[in-house]
Amino acid sequence: MEKAASSSDAAASTAAPATTLPAPIAPAPQHPPPFFPLRDFLKESGVCDLPRVRVIDVGAMFLSEAEEIWQPLQRRGHCESVVGFEPCTEECERLNSSVSSLKTSEDGSDSTESTAFRFLPWALGDGSRGQFRRCSAAMTSSMLEPNIPLLRRFVQLEEVTTVVERSEMATRRLDDLLPEIPGGGVDYLKIDVQGFELAVLKGAQKALQDTLVVHTEVEFVEMYERQPLFAEVDQFLRGNGFVFHRFSSVHGRPMKPLHFAANPLQPISQQLWADAVYVKDMWELGQSQDS
After folding, report:
1. Which residues in 121-270 belong to E strands, given as ranges?
2. Looking at residue 246, what is its pLDDT?
3. Cα Rg of the chain, angstroms
4. Could you give phi then psi for residue 224, rounded to 5 degrees?
5. Do residues 102 and 57 make contact, with C-beta atoms less than 8 angstroms apart?
6. DSSP assignment string, 247-261
7. What letter would DSSP give residue 114?
8. What local confidence, expressed as pLDDT, does residue 5 receive?
9. Coil, helix or strand for 28?
10. pLDDT score for 2
11. What is the pTM of this model?
12. How many CA within 13 A on the CB side of residue 238?
């Protein structure tokens, strides 16, 4: 027994050291990182006194399943003002009635740096007159006609885009409304107007000169008749000093008759629309500061 033990001890003393296994690779994040994490870092570290953001929300509508993209900024006290435009009158009234619940910080207390809110029942565009189509789902309403022959090819798109009411309406140019906006300008422009995005941008060329971020819905197929697609919106924004940053979300629907039984709305392959984020060209910003 003693011999066996000594043999074991000798073997242990001559054995190679245990190999250290590499640390496991962290899984890829399921969602994009939050917008503007640098603002929180700089504010908390006291590196600089950051100006608060002026937000314009075109097509403002609170959906029960998601919050507005600017709300995390607002809860952290980063928003000076939020001015929203929503031509669906009852939706605009609901927005204004919810202002009191928005003026709170993340812990539920009153924010020490309150945000000025204002929601107006106007359709923004290039100043032209047109017909506003109120659809069966308010969030799909548009100044453009839904492309039903295409939409009915996909699961549950025709059902939410059926026009239930039409009304003549003059669109307003954001540039003409700048004097009524707190601070007279825009830092963060969010657009969600169902195919009418380019018209809104064309009516905001003066505002875009000082805008830092544009967060806009874009479409890859003609979901609304004669609508500009992603390529045209992208070209316009690049021509106005912006660069593409990323898609914050991409959406689709399965084409009939195929669908997943567990989730009929889960896209199989075809992407239809997305939320695209553009930022002011940093190289251009550097040149303007040097000049």
Report:
1. 129-135, 163-170, 188-191, 213-219, 242-252
2. 94
3. 26
4. -125, 145
5. no
6. EEEEEE-PBTT---S
7. P
8. 43
9. coil
10. 41
11. 0.80
12. 8
